[in-house]
Amino acid sequence: MPLPENGTVWPPRDIAPLYADIRVDDAWYSGDRRKLATIYRHAPQHRVDGRRRLWGRHRPEGAREHRLHIPLAGEIAQTSADLLFADAPVVTVSDTATQDRLDELLDAGAVPELLLTAAETAAALSGVYLRVTWDRDAAPDRPLITCVHPDQAVPEWRFGVMRAVTFWRALPSTTQTVWRHLERHERGLILHALYEGTEEQLGRRVPLTEHPDTAGLAESLGPEGDAITTGVDLLTAVYVPNIAPNRRHRGAPWGRSDFQGVHDLLDALDETWSSWIRDIRLARSRIIVPDGYLRSRGPGRGAEFDEDREVWQSLAIPPTEQSAGITLSQFAIRVEEHRATAEAIVRQATTAAGYSPASVGLDGDGAAVTATEIAARDHRSMVTRAKKARYWRRALADILRVLLAVDRAQFGARTVDERPAVDIGDGVAEDPGSTAQTLSLLAQAQAVSTDTKVRILHPDWNADAVAEEVARIHEETGQAAPDPVGSFPLAA
After folding, report:
1. To which H or E segment does residue 469 belong?
2. Smaller CB count within 10 Å for the chain: N or C?
3. How far apart are CA 381 and CA 428, in angstroms?
4. Structural domain boundaries of the chain?
């Protein structure tokens, strides 16, 4: 499929429902009260039991904003990324030279840090794209891996396999014209185009040199004027779904956000905290004084009450009048009711998103716990992490193979064509004391070799490092000494 024709509706109608969902999820993820108010104020369909949500209610012009937003959605997305990539994944290939070059590309390209960003984005917005590209000015000796948000991509699928994808971005403009740069990835090709249009349509296609942000691309295009040859027969982009299926769009290849189905609870949490803070605001101590206690500041300047004054002159007040004194007014604050409600909502919201309440700070007293206790307490989070890791493991292996291929084609690297093995780990660091006790029991039962013990203790070591450590242990313990009996020949 070529680049879109002039006047094409943008974004395309078939992906518009996903974009609409992403706009709502992005508002919650951003933690921006103005975004939330904008999303819900003009959306009467977003109601809870026939009433508008907290963020869809009309506020009089100039009124103070007393609604409070709790950024639980952002915390859930961050938790997802931390569970997956707080520790960098281990990526290995069999060829030594290829491994060295791969390690160099991962470190120079800050890929472990990129994965944290991409995983958090995917958790909030239903998925994310990873693409391989290169810029000889920014990185003259290596290709790059970048992250693209799902509302900046239009993929094409066949039997659940992405065959091509068009990334796009709106460029800066000083007029009402909307400039869009489209970057289409196909097997072996990357096509670029610039469109001058409106908010709803791409408009007409113009040369890349018409906008300063794309003018530099014109020099790198091939003879046809719109394509760059990658030199590899692979798609230079992959899609990583956050988790599947998407319950709002059954049968679609898109992932689903961790916030899907949780918006009502997020709104209820904000309403609970807003009510709690309102109690605090209304319960501030106030005093009511008669008019005679006020001192005029002059004609047209009002009056004031000096609360620090200790001595007042006698006032002409009838002795039977009891209402003319100073009255204290203070209301109760419903602390426990609000706290219990807020905690119950947080528990339900995190559980609905696929995580244990302990993952967002509940059910913990700060005491040290073992890895076994963490696994039991965070069981639901660990299950969700394991499911997400499957999607990431496959996508990372695919895109890193493309990275190595582009490195060979564009930068002359001497590596082999191999799909790397990606180990994301189990997400829980084993307690050293527990590991030592387990190994000791296995050794007493003579049920484990030295090689296996070293591999259990150091799962990130390669075969050569394990062999060297085993040899050192045997030498120190005397197990490496030759068998004296075996040194004499047996009698005939």
Report:
1. helix 463-477
2. C
3. 11
4. 1-31+69-258+354-426, 430-484
Q: Name the 3-class secondary structure at 146.
A: strand
Model confidence at 62, pLDDT cuts 50, 70, 90, reads low
Residue owning tokens 């999303």: 39
On whether the CB atoms of residues 466 and 458 are closer than 8 A, the answer is: yes
Question: Residue 50 has what pLDDT?
Answer: 45
- Using CB atoms within 10 A of its CB, is residue 348 exposed (0-12), middle (13-18) or buried (19+)? middle
Nearest to 27 by CA among 6, 50, 4, 54: 54
Q: Name beta bridge partners: 171.
A: 179
Between CA 378 and CA 375 the distance in angstroms is 5
List C-alpha distances in Å: 162 to 113, 157, 241, 395, 415: 26, 4, 12, 12, 26
User: For residues 163 and 157, what is the distance between their CA atoms, to the nearest angstrom?
Assistant: 6
Q: Which residues of 301-312 are buried (b: 16+ CB within 10 A; e: fewer)?
A: eeeeeeeeeeee
Q: Which amino acid is at 157?
A: W
CB–CB of 123/77 below 8 Å? yes
The pLDDT score that the predictor gives to residue 427 is 58
Residue 91 backbone dihedrals phi, psi, to 5 degrees: -115, 125
| Cα 481 from chain centroid (whole Å) | 55
- CA distances in angstroms from 264 to 40, 259, 277, 278, 330, listed in the order given: 12, 10, 20, 21, 33
Rounded distance between C-alpha atoms, residue 227 and residue 44, angstroms: 45
Q: Which helix (H) or strand (E) holds 143?
A: none
Residue whose entry in the numeric block shows the structure tokens 């289409």: 184
* pLDDT at 12 exceeding the cut of 70: yes
CA distance 39 to 28: 10
Selection from 179, 173, 170 nearest residue 149 by Cα: 170
Is residue 370 over pLDDT 80?
no
Q: Is 53 exposed, middle or buried (0-12, 13-18, 19+ CB in 10 A)?
A: buried
Name residue 480's amino acid.
A
**Span 127-164, pLDDT tens digits:** 999 999 999 888 999 999 999 999 999 999 999 899 99
pLDDT in tens, 286-324: 666 666 666 667 776 677 766 666 555 545 555 555 555
